[in-house]
């Protein structure tokens, strides 16, 4: 069973998937920063200083100065601003992935059209040559 597990892990597609997940996690941090540090301020500027991530509706009684204060007090909040930010994050990630796939697909035919290197004689060709030379002796 241990050998099966080693064989499974050693397969190329499993390793490729692991690398993809790690890069995806790092990419998520970059996109999160892009949205919160660059895009949000621009959107906020056009909307009169509104910060989407701070938009919420209190589900219950009480008054709180921020969503953080409401959550700290244990109040139930409907944090629709965070949802808006998650949608913006998703759209940005989807757009970037789309552009990457499009670039790879555009480059793929160029790679396939490249002339292949001469592989030389096959193992069968060499064995037949050896056989023929032994017949001559």
From TrEMBL:
According to the record, the segments passing through the membrane are 17-35, 42-59, 79-101
Compartments it resides in: Cell inner membrane; Cell membrane
SUPFAM superfamilies referenced in this protein's UniProt entry, alphabetically: Gated mechanosensitive channel (SSF81330)
| Any coiled-coil regions, as ranges | none
Q: Which UniProt keywords apply?
A: Cell inner membrane, Cell membrane, Ion channel, Ion transport, Membrane, Transmembrane, Transmembrane helix, Transport
| Pfam families, per the entry | MscL (PF01741)
For the keyword Cell inner membrane, the answer is yes
**Gene3D superfamilies from the xrefs?**
Large-conductance mechanosensitive channel, MscL, domain 1
Membrane topology per the entry is: Multi-pass membrane protein
GO MF entry, a single one = mechanosensitive monoatomic ion channel activity
- What are the GO cellular component annotations? plasma membrane
Functional note? Channel that opens in response to stretch forces in the membrane lipid bilayer. May participate in the regulation of osmotic pressure changes within the cell.
Family in the record: Belongs to the MscL family.
- Summarize the subunit comment: Homopentamer.
Q: What name appears for this protein in its UniProt entry?
A: Large-conductance mechanosensitive channel
Q: Which species is the source of this protein?
A: Roseovarius marisflavi
